[in-house]
Amino acid sequence: LASGLLATTLLAGCSSADQNGTTMPGITPLPVSFELHEGAAPFRLTESTRIIVEGDAATAPELLAERLRAATGWEVPVVAAGSSAGSSASDIMIVVAPGEAPDGAAEGYTLEVDSDGARIGADTPAGAFWGTQSLRQLLPAAIERADATEPDGGWAAAAASVTDAPRFAYRAAMLDVARHFFPVEDVERYLDQLALLKLNVLHLHLTDDQGWRLEIPGRPELTGIGASTSVGGDGGGFYTADDYRRIVAYAADRQITVVPEIDLPGHTNAALSATPELNCDGVAPAPYEGVEVGFSSLCASPERAEVTDRFLADVLGTVASLTPGPYLHVGGDESLATSEADYLDLVRRITAAAAATGKTVIAWHEAGASTDLPEGTIGQYWNFVEPANDDEVANAVSFVEQGGALVMSPADVAYLDMKYVDDPQTALGRTVGLQWAKGPTTLDEAYAWEPTEILPGVGETQVLGIEAPLWTETVSRIEEVEFLVFPRVTAIAEIAWSPRPDGGERDHDAFFERVARLGERWDVLGVTYYPVRGVPWT
Ligand code: TNX
Question: Which of 493, 415, 491 is nearest to 448 (CA)?
Fold first, then answer.
């Protein structure tokens, strides 16, 4: 750790270019330890570079090879260790074996880069994959290209030693595909960019008042009329079971777990409009294309119990069976159309149906009002860094009291759909985002909070992780999603991955410097981002 702090200090003090004109590298999120061997000869990719694999590194070697091949035009074969003569100075070794990761950390890795070669060591394929993402960030931004053009200075990576492992196990971004629908290709593009930041969870908000986005066998009406709308009449859409499987597989290849959310019992107008018998009065409401919240609910009445419970079992059973990951998110937020007693009854039945699938249940923190949560249910806190009132705190802490933990998403710092200061226009010529939390959110604010200091009794071991949600009431195209997400999601990724700084103070200048380095990569990748003030963009 000491060497990591040293390197951080060195990086912070440096201008972004050294005397050869090459850009000082940075790795985001900041590793536990990152030591640049200044003055030492760099590692260089050459026409004969190979990726040599020992142990099971899953997709990490091939995905790295694809990137290097596209950028360099070279062959970059992936070979098994021992199948050829020893490694040479331009090779990349990836070793997955017990004892390789620091302290045996499940997602940890070591990375050694110098003129004798590059080597990644990890205990798991996940660790190996995160190691390749760090190596990628040590190479010039041109490594993100696909036109085989060597940059000035060649394909060099500064000599460095990295020892790294994440602080939190759950490092998430959420995409709301209900208010506006985003096709599989958009989600894959999003996953690519999350992987670069070592985020390992994609929470998909699959249903809301404005749309139902996942095919459920035997219930075609849900993806019929239920998927026909979105906010503002921008058209509908949904994922077939195969589409969803493609997303899950693409994510898994990048060590990302998909957490599906079916938002219940509120935020259900799409389901109610498609299924008359779910309504207390048996009458389906019209589809909804506005942006109000809190007006819809499943029916708690005993006369609807059978049909409602069958719906819950069908839907949650299907989603669970399509999802290899351990989690199932059942919403629970903003159920303002039910009495407290009805809400508690519905939450009990919903979470029980979800737990019956064998998954670990996740719910927005309001659901902590229930004392009947299945053992280990995870709460997602979305109130503010300074909680607005005692109820928000009590509901959130209730998950811990019932044997669970929390994912922290305080809206005033982690909500990516909050506006930027200056309210800039997107390429489509409109301003986007909301400001109900605490007004616009700056990159500084997104970076300047500590997840273990928000709720009493919710410290390091009760925080499962951090999530940055992106609600899509105001954005309909993936470019606009990216505009809101980048660069602010980097702050969330770093709080989730990097060690809590000594003394608690984060180094904003050094962080902004590294965000500028990411900006060079996003430029090459064609990722849309808003060049916020304060970052030394180049
Ligand atoms: C609150 S956060 C909501 C969403 C909105 C979002 C907009 C939460 C659990 N519910 O329904 O889309 O605010 O920022």
Answer: 491
